[in-house]
Amino acid sequence: MVAVVLANLDAIDWKSLRHAYGEASDVPKLIRALVSDHPGKREGALDALFSTIWHQGTVYSASPAAVPFLVELLDADAQEDLPAILELLTHLATGAPDEDAEAAPNPAAAAREAVSRGISVYARRLGHPEPAVRVAAAYLLGLFAVEEARAPLAAAVEDDDEPAVRAVAAFALGCIADPARADELRERLVDISEHPAVRLYAGLGLARGGAPVEGPQFAALAELVE
After folding, report:
1. CB 96 within 8 Å of CB 58
2. Where does the source fall among the domains of life (predicted)?
């Protein structure tokens, strides 16, 4: 799979695209470096991507073009640095457009749309053996208010054996909860047998998502925050 992704990189006219420092012709080299056997090379490539296709909250015309390759790398079983790639995708999905960019196409909207096409991949990463990967995948899924994201998050809240993963999944689900799942999270918030972190993050996610947190739920959240 990695070989196919790397071959397809050359089909993009990167010289016509831009990132934070100008022409984006270096992006293919950086993405190729993410599959290097040398940790230092991978780390350097990630650092560069975090300052080029995403830079201090801004995305550029090269950003949405890079997203499909990052998503496909996530789906490669041998891929290293999964949490960092998931974090980069989170930033790309929530970035603001470059002020110097033309009005259309909007690189921020295009980047978010490109990231949204990988929801099924992020959901599969909720089954990864490393908790850090599951945490990063859960947070990313919480950006997309669709059932394809809600269902795996709800399963993670219920079934994951790591409280940190369950807590982040509860927060992410709260941010995008439909009425039925919001009710389930409110019940979890007041359930004293539940892990405190899961209760707290369920309440915070609901609040961030705009769902009512009132009465006993509000009291429980206030107590957990103290």
Report:
1. yes
2. Bacteria
Q: Are strands 18-19 and 22-23 parallel, antiparallel or unpaired?
A: antiparallel
Evaluate whether 138 touches 113 at the Cβ level (below 8 Å). Answer: no
Check: CB of residue 30 under 8 Å from CB of residue 85: no
Residue 98 tokens, joined? 């470059």
* Angstrom distance (rounded) from CA 208 to CA 182: 12
For residues 45 and 76, state if they share a domain: yes
Q: Work out the mean pLDDT of the chain and round it to a whole number.
A: 93
Q: How far apart are CA 180 and CA 182, in angstroms?
A: 5
Which residues span the domain enclosing 107? 1-117
Q: What are the tens digits of pLDDT across the range 123-173?
A: 999 999 999 999 999 999 999 999 999 999 999 999 999 999 999 999 999
Q: What is the token pair recorded at 181?
A: 């799942």
**Res. 1: pLDDT tops 60:** no
Tell which of 98, 117, 136 closes a domain.
117
Domain stop point among 68, 92, 117: 117
- Strands 96-97, 58-59: pairing is parallel
Three-class SS of 41-106 = HHHHHHHHHHHHCEECCEECCHHHHHHHHHHHHHCCCCCCCHHHHHHHHHHHHCCEECCCCCCCCC
Domain count, the chain: 2
Element (H, E) at 155: helix 147-159
